[in-house]
Fold:
Amino acid sequence: MRNHVTSAIRIGLLLLLPLVFGFTTWATDASAFTEEQRLLSEVWRLVDRAYVDDTFNHQNWWLVRQRALKQPLQTRDDTYGAIQKMLASLDDPYTRLLKPDQYRSLQTNTSGELTGVGLQITQDADTGALSVIAPIDGSPAATAGLQARDRILKINGVSTVELTLDEAAERMRGPVGSQVTLTIARDGVADQDVTLRRDRITLNPVYADLRMQADQALGYIRLTQFNANAAAEVAHAIDRLDHQGAESFVLDLRNNPGGLLQAGIDIAQLWLNQGTVVYTVNRDGIQDSFTALGRALTDKPLAVLVNQGTASASEILAGALQDNGRARLIGERTFGKGLIQSLFSLSDGSGLAVTIARYETPNHHDINKLGIMPDEVVPFEPIARSQIGADDDPQYLAAAEWLSKQSASLVASSVPAL
Structure:
């Protein structure tokens, strides 16, 4: 069985739903609190008013606050530790504190825009070595010729081995027009300093192309996250591929950890003319729903690729397309995150993610910790990044084969009997 708590924290799953709360006066005189106690109480109050479980994991939430406030909170790290301990008592890995650097990184990822050099980076967990996954097309990094697998040794003279991934990313971001110097190592080439001028970078979470596969023109769309640009970019990809002659589509949601709830709903509406997209249920049992608006961009056959890394908003989209009979899901059972978080800004620049509701698929399936079972199970084999969506990808090939049969069936049904 998969360890959901570990996986959730590792891949940073989050569904965001805007929520606004008013504030009332306190029974306790908050003016007597220290700055650290006020921050802890701020977190407690947000959870008290928003958390999906009004039993707070079957504990007296007020007493939890009182015990936390009695701890010696001398430094901000002490306070963060006390807050994390308080939130841990909820036994919910998705309700969590985001320290200022983590919060800024999350805001950047979901906003779909940043000011920096335009690099996707990764860090070796054992050595701390920082390397380039890929430069973003049209970015300063791409213009300067940085390449995948380049190793970033220093940022403005500071060794990257001494930095976390978030710290390295933060050092490369900055105001438009400002400069940053990276020391780059590349196999077969002497180490070199590359000075880049930061610019505004649009984060496009969509890769799309048209390819001939199994005697058909297949539109392949890979969506890596649900940020603020996702729906517009998917719509653009559908429209472009449709005009290029795509006869069917593959939507690849594998290893997509989710993102913005509204983005998931908007993308489902691009494929559906009618039907429910998702139901949400809050702490009072009040149910709300989101439906298709009759504006589907195409009705051509669609296969959706999913695996154990398909989570959160990805599962909302996959569940909507499956339950409405719009697409065939191919791959492995999805992750199983059926909870919705709201993100709150705290007074010290940190953030707080709070689980505020759960969701159900259109057929009222609660998939939390269960996931969505695909219509066709095809095991996920470890493959190189370059093999994803190619002839070495068995899940992609299974989707292409099914779509080929659908296209053949449509052609046969359109030929009149003689």
Summary: The chain is about 30% helix and 25% strand. The mean pLDDT is 88. The longest strand covers residues 351-360. The chain has two domains: 9-19+33-112+203-409, 114-202.
